[in-house]
Specification:
Layout lengths: L1 E5 L6 H14 L6 E5 L15 E6 L1
Length: 59
């Protein structure tokens, strides 16, 4: 299991997820499962695009 975080608001979750998966594959560690962990409700985002992005990867 690998937990990855990114807190850059200008990077979308979709773009970042694609980059993480591509890097894992290039490193010879393809991802079997990838789950997004959203911030808690007490950390709201007005545009529904929270700057804090977290992925839980099963390698």
């Amino acid at each position: 299991m690998l937990i990855c975080c990114n807190n850059l608001a200008k990077v979308s979750m979709q773009d970042w997820r694609e980059q993480v998966l591509r890097c894992a594959t290039k490193a010879g560690r393809p991802v079997r499962d990838c789950q997004e962990m959203r911030p808690a409700a007490d950390f709201p985002s007005q545009d529904n695009q929270p700057p804090l992005k977290t992925l839980i990867l099963q390698l």
